Amino acid sequence: MSKVILSRVLSFLVMSCFSLSVFAVDESSYTHNDLTENTVMNNTDALSLSGTTIKKRFFFKVYRLSHFMEKPKGDFSTRDSLITFILNANTQQRIELEFLRDVTRNQIEEALMQGIEQNNANSDLSQIKQDIERLSSGFQDEVKKHSTLTLSRLSKEKLKVFFNNTLVVETESKALADALWSIWFGEDPIVDTEDLVQNILIH
């Protein structure tokens, strides 16, 4: 008799969790994913590494940033012309962050918003702030050293965000993708963009 009761309890819990998961997706314009075989990032694309740099704060290394993109057909003689292309072209790109020290989810969220505000001073960022909060909810509260955050831009609108190679958010918000890219490629980037595009400029 006890085995029958236990079986019914387990079945109830499984169905309850499933229902909550579906409800959460319906309530958001973003798709948040659990760990499944279909959500693991697969870097088999043909993107080329355009450059790598290190983000520092008070002499401490915070993360290593790498930018990948489809190699443009045209020639770019200056950094500014290439950055303009990166910000406006409808081409696949990927930004990878590898954290070089332990940080918290809140610290990542605050840093992303500071970078966005720094490069979009005259814009209404209330919706973007909500988007960043939804995005960061897929991160662990304590982000350990060597954890990775990947922003995969499949087009100007379609963006996928991976935490430790697992998909946490998928959205078609061009405004959010543009805001995120402005952190590192905007008018007042938080890193040296010369390092992020040097491979394309050289070749």
Largest beta sheet: strand ordering = 1-2-3-6-7-8
Termini, distance in Å?
73 Å
Work out the strand percent: 15-25%
Overall, the morphology is globular
SSE class: alpha+beta
Please write the string of helix (H) and strand (E) elements.
Answer: HEEHEEHHEEEEHH
Return Rg in Å.
Answer: 20 Å
Global mean pLDDT: 81
Total number of helices: 6
Brief description of this entry?
The protein has helices spanning 2-26, 79-88, 105-119, 126-136, 174-185, 193-202, and strands at residues 48-57, 60-69, 93-99, 103-104, 142-143, 148-153, 159-163, 166-171. The chain is α+β, with helices and mostly antiparallel strands and 203 residues long. It has a six-stranded antiparallel β-sheet. A two-stranded antiparallel ribbon has the order 4-5.
Write a concise keyword list for the protein shown above:
single chain; 203 residues; alpha+beta; Chalcone isomerase; 2 domains; 6-stranded antiparallel beta sheet; two-stranded antiparallel sheet; 41% helix; 24% strand; disordered N terminus
Structural write-up:
- With 203 residues, the chain is an alpha+beta fold.
- It folds into 2 domains: 1-28; 48-202, 3-Layer(bba) Sandwich (Chalcone isomerase), CATH 3.50.70.
- 41% of the residues lie in helices and 24% in strands.
- The protein contains 6 helices and 8 strands, in the order αββαββααββββαα.
- The chain has helices at residues 2-26, 79-88, 105-119, 126-136, 174-185, 193-202; strands at 48-57, 60-69, 93-99, 103-104, 142-143, 148-153, 159-163, 166-171.
- The strands form 2 sheets. Strands 1-2-3-6-7-8 form a 6-stranded antiparallel β-sheet. The chain has a two-stranded antiparallel sheet with strand order 4-5.
- The longest helix is centred in the N-terminal third of the chain and has 25 residues, at 2-26.
- The radius of gyration is 20 Å and the shape is globular.
- It starts with a helix and ends with a helix.
